[in-house]
Amino acid sequence: MRDLRIRYFAGAAQAAGTHEAVIAVTEGESLADLAARLGLGNDRLAKVLAVSSFVVDGVVTTDRAVLVGTAQAIDVLPPFAGG
């Protein structure tokens, strides 16, 4: 296990109640696994995570199969409104 920094932006930060968290992850953990864990007990955050994009060590992805066990940081980017 190792620590992973999660940064929440916009509506994700509001739903999480924080802008940043550090959690322990395992080597074989996927982004889908991580999102499920982050949303446990927080339905509002779970809904935001379901439609968010993620930046894993500087690379934007919506692929929930990406392994995050060796990542240093993940940014959670909910859909943004505007024009």
UniProtKB/TrEMBL annotation:
Chain segments annotated as coiled-coil in the UniProt record: none
Domain of life: Bacteria
Listed InterPro entries: Beta-grasp_dom_sf (IPR012675), Mopterin_synth/thiamin_S_b (IPR016155), ThiS/MoaD-like (IPR003749)
Pfam families: ThiS
Protein name in UniProt: ThiS family protein
Native source organism of the sequence: Bowdeniella nasicola
Lineage: Bacteria, Bacillati, Actinomycetota, Actinomycetes, Actinomycetales
